[in-house]
Amino acid sequence: MTDFRPLLGVLSIAIVIGCAGPGGGGGAGSAACACEGAECACPGDPCTCGARRPESMPSTGLLTADAEGWHSGLTLDGATRVRWRGVEGETPTNRLFALELELLDGAEPVTGAEVGVSAFMPDHGHGMNYVPQTTELGAGHYRVEGMLLHMPGFWQLHVDVVRGGIASRATFDLDL
């Protein structure tokens, strides 16, 4: 029987060097590398070499907010425009906060929808430690209490909307 342990050590070193090499970002002190030989997407990413894992959803919204602090995007099916902002005007790290959501179908407010909000860190493979609660306020506005993004880094904010039994999701990229 062949002992592959020495080869595994060499292979591990080659992977680390490959990810920390030119264009690899990562480097000393970074978390486990996610690039697995791929071209790095964000060379300055402090957590990994920048490649987004398959769990990462395509972003359907803008990272930058408008003058009033609203982030805006469409659900994947294009049926619902989702706008959100932090109630206190920010998206803090490691502190409970609330979001205000606005849902629109064209120019009409979406009422009576089931709305859930979550967040996920694709580079780390985990989500939030809390389950936020959503309350409908009327006229297409919803409030989400209990948001907690417990660490800095790349997050994806997911807004799930169920209307007439049909579910869709809007995803927003956040770098905290």
Distance between the termini: 50 Å
The percent of residues in helical segments reads under 10%
Regions with pLDDT < 50 over 5+ consecutive residues?
A: 1-55
Question: Over all CA atoms, what is the radius of gyration?
Answer: 20 Å
Biggest sheet statistics? 6 strands, antiparallel
Outline type = globular
What's the name of the CATH homologous superfamily of the largest domain? Macroglobulin (MG2) domain
Q: What is the number of strand segments? A: 10
How confident is the prediction overall: mean pLDDT?
A: 75
The share of residues in extended strands comes to: 35-45%
Structural class: mainly beta
Structure commentary:
The chain is mainly beta and 176 residues long. The protein folds into 2 domains: 1-51, no CATH class; 71-175, Sandwich (Immunoglobulin-like), CATH 2.60.40. The chain is built from 1 helix and 10 strands. It has one helix at 5-20; strands spanning 71-74, 81-86, 97-105, 108-109, 114-121, 126-127, 133-138, 141-147, 154-163, 166-175. Strands 1, 2, 3, 4, 7 and 8 form a 6-stranded antiparallel sheet that branches.
Sum up the structure in keywords.
1 helix; disordered N terminus; 4-stranded antiparallel sheet; 6-stranded antiparallel sheet; YtkA-like domain-containing protein; single chain; Immunoglobulin-like; mainly beta
Task: Draw up the topology in text.
Blueprint: H1 5-20, E1 71-74, E2 81-86, E3 97-105, E4 108-109, E5 114-121, E6 126-127, E7 133-138, E8 141-147, E9 154-163, E10 166-175
Antiparallel strand pairs: 1-2, 2-3, 3-4, 3-8, 5-6, 5-9, 7-8, 9-10
